[in-house]
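Internal ticket - ligand job 327, iron/sulfur cluster:
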Amino acid sequence: MAAAAVQPLLDIRGLTVEFAVEGGGSLRAVDGVSLQLAAGGTLGLVGESGCGKTVTAMSIPRLVPQPPGRIVGGEIRLQGKELLRLPIRELRQIRGRDIGVIFQEPMTALSPLRRIGDQLAEVVLLHRPVSRREALGLGLEWLEKVGIPDPRQRMEAFPFELSGGMRQRVMIAMAMMLQPCLVIADEPTTALDVTIQAQILDLMRAIRNREAGLLLITHDMGVIWEMCERMAVMYASRLVECGSVKEIFAEPLHPYTIGLMRSIPALHDGKGRLAHIPGQVPSLSALPPGCAFADRCEHAMPICRRERPELLGNVNGRQVACHLHRG
Ligand code: SF4
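stdout (structure tokens):
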């Protein structure tokens, strides 16, 4: 008898998101994206800004502003539950309790007018039947856990009284304190200086619930290497390559992924310069009929300008959308 397939923690199928544009019409910010993340797994979603990675991630807790955004197709299942069709009341229960979100800019999530302790306690009170005193106690415990000095004093502080690195630690506490099964981190270290970046990545590794899945959004291949087991590369609203981080770093297949690899400082040309991918990302409102990367690709063939390459998988679980790798 065949073994039953293990259900992934997060299963995104054919996600398609459009944004209304001024003057009428719409553009497709995410086009048919499918991703799976196992419980305890770490998946990095990488690409240049504007490629659709943040919109993909924010569609999971349905935090894409509607309008102008609209999820026009696909399914998102978390532990088997279809999130896109869930009534908003149920979804609010899931946000915070089952899905923790760490934003690039903590002030997106923190209210500037309320004390840190009150904001932490509120997250607990929304989801757990505990007293305010117990909620404050859990908040304090988590400030200690994320390495905030003088945590009692910081409970009374307003966000503007903390440094950027401290605010990011508070937001990590807020996202993780209820031990969600899925943590989404959107460029969690981009706004911080290099030393603090390393500390925040260490912290996320140290306090992550090993049963939880981590979806990490970044443009930084170094962060992917440090934090993730699997990765997915996005370009102009579509996935172009998916697979294990080790395999992709050892042998990237898609020409865009190869270009991203060349942009990693450790792999630069030895003369102190970072390689960069020539040309520009095409506008999402005027994508060419074939491969969106064709104008920047040194391997472009006539078929690339006619036919859009589908994302095809091989036996090793690697998926690539490129006419160079068709079966
Ligand atoms: Fe280059 Fe063609 Fe592959 Fe696109 S499909 S990445 S243009 S070789």
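Auto-summary: The chain has one domain: 10-98+180-282+289-325. Residues 254-255, 291, 293-294, 297, 299-301, 304, 309, 322-324 surround iron/sulfur cluster (CB under 6 Å).
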